[in-house]
């Protein structure tokens, strides 16, 4: 039997005046899943998260979190949720450990619970030795981990993460991904937005690709890649002058040729054999690279645009 859905959205819509930021999206997230909203800036990801978190009212449609409507049962819904917003909003005046305790007090949790819980969460966030540090002395990655630790103070069943690793360096991102994996192993349902395809591939069991407030596709990263791309991609650079016109000369190689401003992509199941065909036509790229298809290719196929602006 499938686990029950902890979040159900049906035709969820949010308009800001004339602008439809979220345009009738529907999805279900079963308990324990790591579910992603992948899309470029402005796609409507944060707006969807805010509606789930009960801090933004929907214009129309239905939304249910653990069987409750966040608009009519705000406090009950928030008790099940941990929220990691896009911008860290830690209290810079307070020390690291105090941030956890003071936040827990907002939930009305007793100090006898909060003190050991704060220590446990600092351990989890690898911040035990920073317990007494000032927040403004922490690195970006540490602040993110502290924000995540803080969001876990009430032992939420669902964690909402809006762009969890934006602005972090690769090492800090990997540490964070590892922590999120651990939460998933503990059975926490993760809902995350990202415009990084590698993050979506690493973290999400299933995701929706969103663009301009609409769902373009839905599935696991692997199934989306299988459905919308080839196994491999041959990336060629011919220099800015030739890139624009070379597409015609490459026609027929692989399943599809996509011309971007700085490179040409040939979609083929066997990239090396596509490269041999390029050589056979006496076309000499400045650089060539064969790689596996990614969600970036899925997005390009679905929208004709690149995921990262
Ligand atoms: N409070 C608001 N008032 C008016 N328009 C808004 C408001 N919040 C968001 N928007 C608009 O709604 C659209 C969707 O924004 P949203 O922040 O949800 O996108 P996003 O996919 O999360 O992108 P980002 O990663 O940049 O946050 C954008 O066009 C944005 O300008």
Automatic annotation (TrEMBL):
Residues 7-237 form the ABC transporter domain. SUPFAM superfamilies: P-loop containing nucleoside triphosphate hydrolases. The keyword Lipid metabolism does not apply. It comes from the Bacteria. Transmembrane segments: none annotated. One of its GO terms (molecular function) is ATP binding. It is a peripheral membrane protein. Gene3D superfamilies: P-loop containing nucleotide triphosphate hydrolases (3.40.50.300). SMART domains: AAA (SM00382). Keywords: Antibiotic resistance, ATP-binding, Nucleotide-binding, Transport. It is found in: Cell membrane. The keyword Cell membrane does not apply. Its main location: membrane. Pfam families: ABC_tran (PF00005). Belongs to the ABC transporter superfamily. This is ABC transporter ATP-binding protein. It comes from Arthrobacter ramosus. The lineage of its organism: Bacteria, Bacillati, Actinomycetota, Actinomycetes, Micrococcales.
